[in-house]
Design a protein that fits this description.
two-stranded antiparallel ribbon; 7 strands; about 325 residues; mainly alpha
């Protein structure tokens, strides 16, 4: 036979089950369908072929695929599917779902929704209610029309992405997302808890409103940052103005102490962010450095972040966990 057509017969006779199964899997991983496992029964001189090679390899592939999905390693999951088309056909809806999760993590809800919609018709009927609930969530986020409810949902989604960044050790990404979350959270609190009114899609403090807020205006006039008075008369919203207004309403008792404490924790990260490649420097960053700035462990911070997200939206940020459950249910169908 030509070398490309040669077969490999692997005997499963003798030794321990763990030993010969390990040898078999090693052969299958290297030569795939060219491996034929055989077994010689006790007292016989005849070797019987066993039709188990593809089944074993497929189940191993499915286990690895589930693990990658649950770890939210979506690109690795997609690559694994593409490299093993001979083992698992009919997997297009899984690729679409995997890409929906990847786009969600990149805050691209338009594409996340598109991939989810494209997968829908090939999803098993009993899994479609879960798919529909996910589509409702992502369709709200992809709507570019500004609204109070959409802002809340965007903050919840961003909190979920930060959690994933921290769990996967993607600390520069986490810092960048925390920086945006800090600003968005301040605007949400000022609007929702303190009655601050914005205009021009949140870019300015509303003139008619601020003209009636004499105490706040006097506070902003006296507010200093690094020895310099705050420039706020043009009403343009920036981080320093938001922080000043949070300080004012915190002193007035409009913002809960736990929320004020969390905002201060986020602010501590600004100095660290500015030294990294996502801002103005080239400094690396690790878990220890993050925890030193946070003043607490990453796990504790994640619990606080999830609690805050739940307070904002009434539900924990679990879109990706539900999506992963759907993907794994579809993986179980692979043959």
């Amino acid at each position: 036979e030509k070398e490309s057509e040669s077969k490999f017969y692997v005997s499963l006779t003798g030794g321990t089950p763990a030993l010969y199964i390990g040898i078999l899997l090693g052969f299958i991983e290297r030569w795939k369908e060219r491996v034929i496992p055989v077994y010689v029964p006790r007292g016989s001189s005849t070797a019987f072929p066993l039709n188990v090679s593809f089944a074993l390899e497929r189940e191993k592939l499915k286990r690895i695929l589930r693990a990658l999905v649950m770890a939210k390693s979506y690109k690795s999951s997609e690559r694994l599917l593409e490299e093993n088309q001979d083992l698992v056909g009919g997997n297009q809806q899984i690729k679409e779902l995997i890409n929906s999760g990847y786009m969600w993590l990149n805050f691209d809800f338009q594409k996340s929704a598109s991939f989810l919609n494209r997968a829908y018709t090939d999803i098993k009927v009993e899994n479609r209610p879960l798919a529909q609930s996910l589509m409702q969530v992502v369709n709200k986020l992809k709507d570019e029309k500004e609204s109070y409810d959409r802002t809340k949902q965007l903050l919840i989604a961003l909190a979920e992405i930060i959690v994933v960044n921290l769990q996967k050790g993607q600390y520069p990404c986490a810092l960048g997302n925390m920086f945006r979350f800090h600003e968005g959270l301040m605007m949400y609190i000022l609007y929702d808890k303190c009655g601050v009114q914005f205009e021009d899609q949140g870019k300015r403090i509303k003139k008619d409103w601020i003209d009636t807020q004499k105490e706040l205006a006097n506070f902003l006039d006296q507010y200093e940052v690094n020895g310099e008075h705050l420039s706020w008369k043009n009403r343009k919203v920036n981080r320093r103005i938001l922080e000043a207004m949070v300080d004012f309403y915190a002193k007035e008792g409009n913002i809960e102490d736990t929320t004020v404490s969390f905002l201060k924790t986020l602010k501590k990260l600004a100095e660290l962010r500015n030294k990294t490649i996502i801002a103005h420097g080239y400094q690396g960053i690790n878990r220890k450095m993050m925890e030193e700035k946070l003043g607490k462990g990453i796990d504790e911070f994640i619990r606080e972040l999830r609690g805050l997200a739940k307070d904002i939206g009434g539900e924990p940020p679990d879109f990706l966990d539900k999506l992963n459950a759907l993907i794994c249910a579809e993986i179980d169908r692979l043959e």
